[in-house]
């Protein structure tokens, strides 16, 4: 049963475009899916290492820009009469760049920031995202600044026997693409968490002094987690760039990080399904509220919902629901015993 | 003659203006059980912190198998084969006993990122081996039947045993135990003593012990080193140390005269 349920859930999600072929619904779900991928990656840091990255949108935005710039190409001056030129590359090459570039920055940030942990890590990650936002706003030659990078090509699929690659324009195609990447991201994080590396991360979260005494290298493992997390967040950013097909410096906005944090915390940080459940609740919420409430009211609704969930389910929805199962299992034999006596 | 397993050479530790350890030198020969005793504040735990890399010495150095340990972080020192337990109970409270054991077996595995991400056969085999080792480890300390229990709900004595198991997991050559019998009742203390002997005899682990239970120290130690106010005041076999006037003065504040009666110092 336990092994069967996740696959049934995946099949159900995969069937949505067939059961519900409304393009608007699909585009809302696809954009929620992109943020769920971001939340899955954030959960590896926030949930399993206990380090709060409040600049997670930085990796997301880096992925979007790296992917977009690689596929569009660029030609920029770097001073002293030198120029760097990149011809437009195939979209999947861009997607790869959208993973590798944030991962490299994740490595760099991890090496620097994990010398100072806790509150300082939070501050450094916030600054990182703000610096990138200012950079993309002002480096107009590379990023078009506030005019945004537009005309980003859609991702495409090709397999042997096909004359030309199929560009993934339609909402149902994008939905399936996001679902596939989300499933891969989920599996990657699951593999890491259930391995020796995942145990080292949890050991560091639970009791760093003890973890070090049994030989767990603090910076090494925290950097590994940051690199994987940044790479997955970058993949989400790349999907964003190639599905919305326009990227502006707002991808680095604090509110995107907050959205991912809310998804992880309400769903249940440090659980594999937490970001998925939290994401399915909060991802489509702004669009559902769009017709009936102004944006400001939406954010207030977000905040209130978050406060209520943290108040009544402090560990999140998934642990709360999971804790119902053993209780029910334990209650059953007792009930049987009472019946037998009666 | 081969060098001792551990040599502490003229170590001094100053914390702010406080002299925690003034000048400490002692050796731990391989295969022995050495106890470090002394009144509260004598510098015993500080000595542990220096040896295992949690605190840098102000002066002096620590040699393990002739190689300096000073300057290495705790995790590197653990990888060299020197692992400690903690005075206050130190376990991964939110995890099950079995998960605790697996986490502590970290150094017994080497699976990296790709092994984990791709579930390579080598990583799977290693995982199976680690699970078997975790079971053996819990059997060693008598916690095998508690494997599925969340560690924080274990009884105090069980938590102490788990703490020792975590320190032993990495198969250290030198094990530093910080008051393993603290808070244990007499029968639990006897079990603890037997466990330490078995670690030495069956697993070939050399032990450096900090302990307040003098009966246990005298029964188990090959050598006793006595610290007082940051200085070593005596070192030798338990019987010799027990009768040392300096030691008695440190503990009782008085010296037995020739008539064998304690007199308050003048």
TrEMBL record, chain A:
Residues spanning the membrane: 31-50, 57-80, 92-110, 119-140, 146-162, 174-193, 218-241, 253-277, 297-318
The keyword RNA-binding is annotated on this UniProt entry: no
Keyword Cell membrane assigned: yes
Keywords for this protein: Cell membrane, Membrane, Transmembrane, Transmembrane helix
A molecular function GO annotation: branched-chain amino acid transmembrane transporter activity
Pfam families attached to this UniProt entry: BPD_transp_2 (PF02653)
PANTHER family: HIGH-AFFINITY BRANCHED-CHAIN AMINO ACID TRANSPORT SYSTEM PERMEASE (PTHR30482), HIGH-AFFINITY BRANCHED-CHAIN AMINO ACID TRANSPORT SYSTEM PERMEASE PROTEIN LIVM (PTHR30482:SF20)
Name of the protein this chain belongs to: Branched-chain amino acid ABC transporter permease
The organism of origin for this protein: Roseomonas acroporae
Organism phylogeny: Bacteria, Pseudomonadati, Pseudomonadota, Alphaproteobacteria, Acetobacterales
UniProtKB/TrEMBL annotation, chain B:
Keyword entries, A-Z: ATP-binding, Nucleotide-binding, Transport
GO CC terms, sorted: plasma membrane
A Pfam family per the record: BCA_ABC_TP_C
Domain ABC transporter: start-end pairs: 6-254
InterPro entries xref list: AAA+_ATPase, ABC_AA/LPS_Transport, ABC_transporter-like_ATP-bd, ABC_transporter-like_CS, BCA_ABC_TP_C, P-loop_NTPase
GO molecular function: ATP binding; ATP hydrolysis activity
Protein name: ABC transporter ATP-binding protein
Species the sequence originates in: Roseomonas acroporae
